[in-house]
Automatic annotation (TrEMBL):
<keyword id="KW-0285">Flavoprotein</keyword>
<dbReference type="InterPro" id="IPR029041">
    <property type="entry name" value="FAD-linked_oxidoreductase-like"/>
</dbReference>
<keyword id="KW-0274">FAD</keyword>
<feature type="domain" description="Proline dehydrogenase">
    <location>
        <begin position="44"/>
        <end position="303"/>
    </location>
</feature>
<protein>
    <recommendedName>
        <fullName>proline dehydrogenase</fullName>
        <ecNumber>1.5.5.2</ecNumber>
    </recommendedName>
</protein>
<dbReference type="Pfam" id="PF01619">
    <property type="entry name" value="Pro_dh"/>
</dbReference>
<keyword id="KW-0547">Nucleotide-binding</keyword>
<keyword id="KW-0642">Proline metabolism</keyword>
<dbReference type="InterPro" id="IPR002872">
    <property type="entry name" value="Proline_DH_dom"/>
</dbReference>
<dbReference type="InterPro" id="IPR015659">
    <property type="entry name" value="Proline_oxidase"/>
</dbReference>
<comment type="pathway">
    <text>Amino-acid degradation; L-proline degradation into L-glutamate; L-glutamate from L-proline: step 1/2.</text>
</comment>
<keyword id="KW-0560">Oxidoreductase</keyword>
<dbReference type="InterPro" id="IPR008219">
    <property type="entry name" value="PRODH_bac_arc"/>
</dbReference>
Length: 310
């Protein structure tokens, strides 16, 4: 409950324009802890650095709720540029996209622009043997994102496209069951948006319990699972569950955010687990940064100290 109140308070404050302007003016130095840089080259450098520790990468060009169709298409072009740059640097690209950034909800030439642009991105990623994960956003987008995932999965195959389920939503276990016919590659997260009690568990204990159930169910169904959390107790339980049920270490991977729990990321990789860091980059870092601050008061203290040092 306290976690929910803290998150609500931070996201509400962060949504105010004056706060945004103040943080944008002084915050890039602090954001660098969570964001690899503003260009594809800085992100690619981060991929190389992580590789030295045996950690794989998931590149994410930042940008949310981009307004005009032309901007959405430009954003998709920028993701494709990044795929090209990664391929040229000898990296098999693994990227995440938010469908809202590439036009979800806008109809152009009789089709949802998010679907059109996602298709262009996945086509290019597939040419390079890569993978695109469709991030999950706030709850009104879940139905359309799952429907578009199903379409894209049909067109490109599960080796090249996956999506995300959020354990804080009441609906998610049913959603997972409903995707089993695809044997999908799914990332399981707790959920990062401010959601009402009508759709999401208000208590952290319920979110955590649903998280475990989702991961175990997806493993039991024989599907590849991306266990995306920094929660050590869940990570431990998943390790034990996999051991007890004969699920091999290459049937799942742990995913964490760039700059968060690097010690844990390295230790898991050293122990032979697959580990992937989610590397955000780009100029539009403020909403991403706000959500990281909302996740734990420790991060808020880090920002406040940074601003006081100013
Ligand atoms: P929880 O919040 O319970 O934290 C567990 C432990 O980790 C605590 O000790 C906490 O302090 C620490 N911790 C958590 N976040 C931290 C941070 N930012 N800094 C420092 N310590 C931190 N969400 C979404 O809605 N859609 C999506 O597509 C994605 N995608 C995604 C990809 C990947 C790779 C990850 C790791 C996460 C996401 N998320 C997401 C975000 C996710 O929903 C969730 O908000 C965060 O992962 C935080 O929750 P934890 O599972 O880490 O647990």
């Amino acid at each position: 409950m306290i976690d929910q109140m803290y998150r609500k308070a931070v996201l509400t404050v962060a949504g105010q324009k004056a706060i945004e302007n103040a943080v944008r003016a002084r915050g890039w130095g602090m954001a660098q802890r969570f964001v690899a840089g503003e260009t594809p080259q800085t992100a690619i450098q981060a991929v190389h650095d992580l590789k030295k520790d045996g950690i794989m990468a998931n590149l994410d060009l930042l940008g949310e709720f981009i307004e005009s169709p032309a901007q959405c298409t430009q954003f998709a072009d920028n993701v494709i540029t990044m795929l090209d740059a990664a391929h040229a640097a000898g990296i098999t690209p693994y990227v995440s996209i938010k469908l809202s950034s590439v036009g979800q909800g806008k109809t152009v030439d009789g089709e949802d622009l998010g679907l059109t642009n996602a298709r262009r991105i996945i086509r290019r990623a597939k040419e390079y043997g890569g993978f695109v994960c469709l991030d999950m956003e706030d709850h009104p987008r879940v139905d359309q994102t799952l429907a578009q995932f199903r379409t894209l999965h049909g067109e490109f195959g599960g080796q090249h496209v996956g999506t995300v389920l959020q354990s804080y939503l009441y609906r998610t276990e049913k959603d997972r069951d409903g995707l089993d016919d695809l044997s999908p590659n799914l990332r399981i997260v707790k959920g990062a948006y401010l959601e009402p009690e009508t759709v999401a568990y208000p208590q952290k204990a319920d979110v955590d319990a649903a998280y475990r159930r989702l991961v175990y169910a997806h493993m039991q169904a024989g599907n590849y699972v991306n266990v995306a959390t920094h929660d050590e107790s869940i990570i431990h339980d998943v390790q034990m569950y996999a051991l007890a049920h004969g699920i091999s270490k290459d049937a799942f991977e742990f995913q964490m955010l760039y700059g968060i729990r690097r010690d844990l990321q390295r230790n898991l990789a050293a122990a032979g687990y697959r580990v992937r860091a989610y590397i955000p980059y780009g100029r539009d870092w403020y909403p991403y940064f706000s959500r990281r601050i909302a996740e734990t008061p420790r991060n808020a203290m880090f920002v406040i100290r940074g601003m006081l040092k100013g």
